[in-house]
Amino acid sequence: LKWMNRANCVLIMLGASKSNLAKLRKKTGYPFGNCKKALENNNNDLEKAEKWLEDQAKALGWSKAMKMESRNTPQGLVGVAWDKHYAAMVEVNCETDFVSKNEKFQKLVDIVAKTCLHHSKADNPSPKSISKVVLEGEEMGKLIAADQQSLSDHVVRNIAMVGERLVLRRAALVSAQSPLQLSALTHPVTGNASQLGKYGTVLVYSAAAYDEGTAALAKQLCQHVIGMNPTKIEASPDDAAPAPIQPVVKERVVTEGEEDEGVTVEGGGGEEETVMMRQAFLLDAERTVADVVAEANIKVEDFVRFECGEGLSPESEEVTAKAAQAGG
Question: What's the pTM?
Answer without folding.
Answer: 0.73
